[in-house]
Predict the structure.
Amino acid sequence: MNARDALVRLQEIDVELLRDRRRGEELPQRAAVAKLRADVKRVGAEAQRVVGRHKDLAMALEANAEEHDHVAGLVDRAQAEAAEGRDYRHVRDLEAQLTSLAKRLEKLEFQRAGLEGELEACRRRAEECQAWLKRARAEEAELVASFKGELEAVAARVRELREEREDVVAGMDPALVERYERASERFGGLAVERLVGDTPSVCRVTLQPSQYAAVRTPEGYCECPYCHRILVSDEG
């Protein structure tokens, strides 16, 4: 492989390597996994809050039941005393007490209905969260497996290109390799341009006739007079 062809192939390899690196970084599964994990974290946190709220509601229901039993006991005792038929004032006080206790019981029963409704809503939401998390974890596993498969394919391609690059560089003049590497670093990976007719393929500035003749070197390459990349002619 002559110097011109080596430069062209080296540039092609480096462009392919750059594309493969970007392809690996931009695999759609990467963003999908990141989003899914963020959603899992959010739903997991919600599930924890729902479980905590469920416990609080269960305790509130238990307290409500205890208070209801206590008030119901007071009602029973007041009714028993009223049945004994003591003096009018005492019966009147008991009736007032029973009215108050009945209101307390009604309030407790209303609160219990609300607590039971919220408790059931928490239970359903907890089940929904757990079911979603189960599906999300399965989806994540599939995405990760797909991502790893494609990433391994990209990595295999990169290894092949790097091995070929080493072979190409090994057959080149070290000074030319150093010149190429400097230009590659300077021009963001595009060190070599081809002469298409009388126009360089990157800077696209048409050469003057005298310049056009100058690039026809025996080596098949020179420096572009405009952008200063390595310019290879179509004749080596």
